[in-house]
Design a protein that fits this description.
Blueprint lengths: L1 H11 L5 H24 L4 H26 L6 H28 L2 H25 L1
Helix pairs in contact: 1-2, 1-3, 2-3, 4-5
């Protein structure tokens, strides 16, 4: 089980800055070592220790993912991301307004233009999100 925990830690610290990943791996390795040594000192059976380690790992998965989100360096320019989101929302708002005004004016061209704005904004938004992953 200790090997499984070690593989998990190396998995969720991948692509992080090297000093951050090494520090986290060291923390978990030391904690795991202390846990096993404590249980052995109490005379706990190896199988029971392994189940305890597995249980701790399973209970800590969410905390590990949360830790990774906190320490991960942000990618890209946050101002550019904000402007992209605002531009997309503006395009959707303009498209919806064009559809509504086109219905009131009985202008099928304006409705079509509005639908294209909405569909285009959604398409570019989805594409940008998929590209960032």
């Amino acid at each position: 089980m200790a090997g499984l925990v070690a593989r998990w830690v190396r998995f969720y610290t991948r692509n992080l800055p090297d000093p951050v990943a090494r520090r986290r791996i060291g923390e978990i390795d030391a904690d795991l070592h202390d846990h096993i040594a404590y249980e052995r000192a109490l005379g706990t059976a190896e199988r029971r220790i392994a189940l305890g380690v597995l249980s701790r790992m399973a209970r800590g998965l969410a905390a590990d993912a949360s830790w990774r989100r906190r320490v991960r360096t942000p990618k890209g320019n946050p101002v550019k991301t904000l402007l992209t989101v605002l531009a997309g929302l503006a395009a959707i708002a303009i498209g919806v307004a064009a559809v509504v005004l086109g219905e009131a004016d009985d202008s099928p061209g304006l409705q079509l233009l509005g639908a294209l704005f909405v569909i285009g904004a959604i398409t570019f938004g989805v594409r940008a999100v998929r590209r960032s992953r």
